[in-house]
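Subgroup meeting minutes
Present: P.N., E.W., G.H.
Scribe: E.W.

1. P.N. recapped why we're keeping a running log of single-chain structure predictions: easier to compare across weeks, and new members can see raw inputs and outputs side by side.
2. G.H. added today's entry (632 aa).
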Amino acid sequence: MTGAETEDDIPLGERKTVTDFCYLLDKSKQLFNGLSLQALHRNHSVRRAAPRRTAPRRAVWSGGTLPAAPGSDSRSAGRSRKERPTHSHRTTQNHSELLHFRDLPQYGHKQWQSYFGRTFDVYTKLWKFQQQHRQVLDTRYGLKRWQIGEVASKIGQLYYHYYLRTSETSYLNEAFSFYSAIRQRSYYYQVNKEDRAELVVKKLRYYARYIVVCLLLNKMDLVKVLVKELSEEIEDYTQRFNTEDQLEWNLVLQEVAAFIEADPAVVLNDHNSMLVTSNRLQDGSVPPLEQGMVVGQLVLADALIVGNCNNQVKFSELTVDMFRMLQALEREPVNLATQTSKQATLEPNEKPAKRENPHKYLLYKPTFSQLYTFLSASFKELPANSVLLVYLSATGVFPATHLDYEAGPYDFGGVLTNTNRDVVNGETVQKRNQAQKEMHCLHPGDLFPFTRKPLFIIVDSSNSTAYKNFSNLFGQPLVCLLSPTVYPKSVQDQSQRGSLFTLFLYSPLLGFSSVCGLSSLRRGLWENAQDFLRKVFRDIGQMLTRSRSIDQAFLQFFGDEFLRLLLIRFVFCSATLRLHKLFRESRSFPESYPELPKQDTVESVLLQKQVLELAAMLDVQSLFWDDSLESY
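Output recorded in log:
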């Protein structure tokens, strides 16, 4: 609208277009802020990947597709102007929805689905509307490119959170499409020319979110480019504006740089450039069951991934251990390879294939009450014939007194939970004397109620052996995989970059390379070693299923591909460390509950021979005992 032009001079149709756009824009902000308030309400400590659902309806744009509201009422977009609620009514209605978002529990798919779907629906309409009426909005509303970029960024955030709530990696590709389009089309380019610090912060946050998505998609080359651009943007931002958040943004750069360097070994191609490898579950990577082998039909349905290690590298509330276990529990997206080169050009009829991933809670430094709440919710929602996996990567809590033969499940300590938010009457509760148990700790006994259903536990902690003192009270399948509690100094010095035990469960060849001090491998050698490991894993699978003395709990879980691969990798890790010359203490070996028959598995002569063959292949055989029996 020009200075001399009045509202009456604008054609009625164009006025209605601007009014409708303002309504949709206001509605989208209200709903999105409601979702953000829900995240703030949980103190940014929990990320939810909720139960499975069918793929939502989708509205298409030229750079991706947006799920429309599951169960939402699309008829609202077609209401006439007379039927449209007044601004006062809309404000009251939006405020009511905000209150609902604040009151939503942070768990359970029934509570979030309708509100999340409504937000998707509004953003679908908003995006299509601004596409169809761009010229009118440019001239009459003064729509700027950074505003379009902000809408696209919000859509990318919605996709990312939808991925967290559904565990469907296809939605990561959708988020990447929108984030990529923002950068390719320079939607935020003009922001730096405006003297508004808050707009620049929007751009910086967009970069940080884009980097997270690229990390999860293993687009490491692009991550390095984005980090460089973010560094330049932060430098420009801090020079132009005298702000108090300079240190915070520099910390973001330091965290992502440390995250990129966390892997102990890299794969090099013929041109000495780094080759990105994926460690998600892929077709053919899981040893098949022998024909006629009878194993349990349980399916891994839910996983709680907990990270509370002091001083471990993290980025965006994902520690390195959490990041690795997250990917170990996901299948490779069908279209991930094509997305690497494809630049936001999804076809309208292209829909991601349904994936069968377990659904995850990601808990970064949760309090005991938060952890127990999510355990209870996941336990309640667990379908029949399904398994709940609990992964604990946390600092150990040790008992204050000497243990006697009558020690119970609360006398061995456990793993640390966050102490910052467990308060009584406004004051942090402290342990009063040594006779009392540590309250900021997840004790083995705390998990006993959840053994009423199939439970698979992985503990990576300096006091993991506390969970060896388990009791299977209800006769349901129960397995605990426990990390070493003591590492050689050379390994311990690398603990900030992630645990060796989790590294083996995530990528056995990376774990083997790390423990052997290899910082790089040629592509051909890496692929040959991976082929050899596939044969080793097939043999380990047969060792487990053919053993006459193995506890049946292991076989109950063996029908699920994720759990089968974790069990096989656990056995390989244990066999490797038992043969390595630096690992001489029994505390340096992984353990399990129930205990595995060693002669049939981790100390199998065949497996020992295969570990030595792999060491010879990598030219590190001098680090291993050639005859392990002489070392005991």
